[in-house]
Amino acid sequence: MPGRQQRAGGYAELVRLGDGTRQGDGASFGVMLLGDSGVGKSCFLSRFKDGAFLSGTFIATVGIDFRNKVVAVDGVKVKLQIWDTAGQERFRSVTHAYYRDAQALLLLYDITSKISFDNIRAWLSEIHEYAQKDVVIMLLGNKADMSGERAVRTEDGASLAREYGVPFMETSAKTGLNVELAFLAVAKELKQRAVQAPGEPRFQIHDYVESQRSKSSCCAFA
Ligand SMILES: Nc1nc2c(ncn2[C@@H]2O[C@H](COP(=O)(O)OP(=O)(O)O)[C@@H](O)[C@H]2O)c(=O)[nH]1
Ligand SMILES: [Mg+2]
């Protein structure tokens, strides 16, 4: 069935946003970047995809941009189709249809912007209204390299994440801090859900993130 990917719980039509990339070789999952305009979503994606920090707004169009990236999880290829809400988030209302096919959501705020943090609750209620019930959510405090201008304490991010039961870490699209880890943790969780063998211990995304993440205080260089 070209263009359709089977996953646990049914079929998710991912080709709808297709870029011509051949589908059908291995598991493919939709990951969506959410959060206020300016928090660094596009930079976060390009840091992961291209290993570079592109400053400035290089995606100005209003719509949805997306990139594919294959990551190896325990020797198995997992394809992530990562959707970036190019500009729509300015109106804090991303086309709700896009939520439906996302298996994971990376929700970003900017540690130098209290407003972007305060808006996380609004984003979470959008998510709870429109996303799949079992969607994987991760809260990310981006721009951790800008500690001099910090407006949101790490512990406030952590406690909001605890309240909602989602994993949390601080990241930097600029230095690369925890960027790969965020996608890898999501890929591991999704792969595990799709192909969990009976009796196999369940992958614990919270524990994984806690054990792997780098603390911004110890290693961030602006
Ligand atoms: N210092 C620093 N600046 C960042 C980081 N991520 C993004 N930026 C800057 O923040 C601004 C907005 O980034 P962008 O990716 O366009 O945000 P978006 O609107 O969420 O997609 C740009 O000027 C980026 O250069 C980061 O981790 N550290
Ligand atoms: Mg953007």
TrEMBL record:
InterPro entries: P-loop_NTPase, Small_GTP-bd, Small_GTPase. One of its GO terms (molecular function) is metal ion binding. Keywords: GTP-binding, Hydrolase, Lipoprotein, Magnesium, Metal-binding, Nucleotide-binding, Prenylation, Protein transport, Transport. Its cofactor is Mg(2+). It catalyses: GTP + H2O = GDP + phosphate + H(+). One of its GO terms (biological process) is protein transport. Its EC number is 3.6.5.2. It comes from the Eukaryota. Pfam families: Ras (PF00071). The keyword Glycosyltransferase does not apply. The keyword Nucleotide-binding applies. Belongs to the small GTPase superfamily. Rab family. PANTHER family: PTHR47978. This is small monomeric GTPase. It comes from Apteryx owenii (Little spotted kiwi).
